[in-house]
Amino acid sequence: MGAEPQETPIHMNEVKQSLLETESTTLTESSLPSLDEVEEIIGYKFENKNLLEEAFTHSSFMCSFSYERLEYIGDAVLNLLFSREHYFLYPDLAPGKLTRLRAANVDTEKLARVALRHGFHRYLRHKKRLLEDQIQEFARAVLDYPLHSNGLIDAPKDLADLVESTIGAVFMDCNSIDIVWEVFKGLLEPIITPETIQIHFNTQLNELCQKNNRSLKYVDSWEKNKAVDCFIDGQFVGRGTYSLRKEVAQNRAAKDALDNRWKWMVLREKDTADEEQEEESPTSQLSEEESEVNEQP
Fold first, then answer.
1. Distance between alpha carbon 245 and the CA centroid of its chain, in Å?
2. Integer Cα distance of 54 and 64 in angstroms
3. Per-residue pLDDT tens for 197-249?
4. Quick one: which of 18, 83, 58, 43 has its CA closest to 162?
5. Do residues 294 and 286 touch, judged by C-beta distance below 8 A?
6. Listed residue (111, 109, 120, 118) closest to 144, CA to CA
7. pTM above the 0.90 mark?
8. Are the beta carbons of 200 and 150 closer than 8 angstroms?
């Protein structure tokens, strides 16, 4: 276990270069880049080169193997690595917070950023339609969110899978979890810490409504116009749109509601004050007749 990592956002020049290379690369069997370059990127030499080839082969490539089994191994190894690292780095952190911290470091967007930053996608053998377009869109989107979008953009799962399959390949080759951590710890930077972790806007809004006894409802019109509307106590408070995934649109709607919470929180407080005043007025102000009756012996 090393010292606590530094949080440095993904380097914009690296992403822009990766974007240009993605736009200019169309893979054919005769133009596949050498996987030897992957070994240079990660700083690890494979004893069994077949594992490296398997790790970078998508099921759409239509051969006798794909990275899916190594992805399964890599997912388990990565979760164990972060569990162990966080256990020693944060001895006072409760299990629930440790779980949330681990999840933030292994979620799809976080790992997809790793693949993009180090150019793993350039070596992926695949014949999946539109994947290159999805990677280009993701590469542009992350420029607006240097560390993490907190659920506001859609990351191609294939990129995250590629990181996990590579981790799985290294583990199966060396059979040492310590070597895997030594190889990938730097590649996984910036690592999210308790100080930099963020909560998805949907979760934030749910917690805010529960705390203030508010009714939260999402109205889904995504199939029709790629939008999700957010209502609190029956009042429209936010809208989110995203054409590729409904979950992202809903998270954007939650963010819109949170950005406007000063409006609907103030209105609720005003309504509550008015209701309290109406409830108090019949008992605090007796009519003259009632007063006279009460004054009679």
1. 13
2. 10
3. 888 888 889 999 999 899 999 998 888 888 999 999 989 999 998 877 788 88
4. 58
5. yes
6. 109
7. no
8. yes
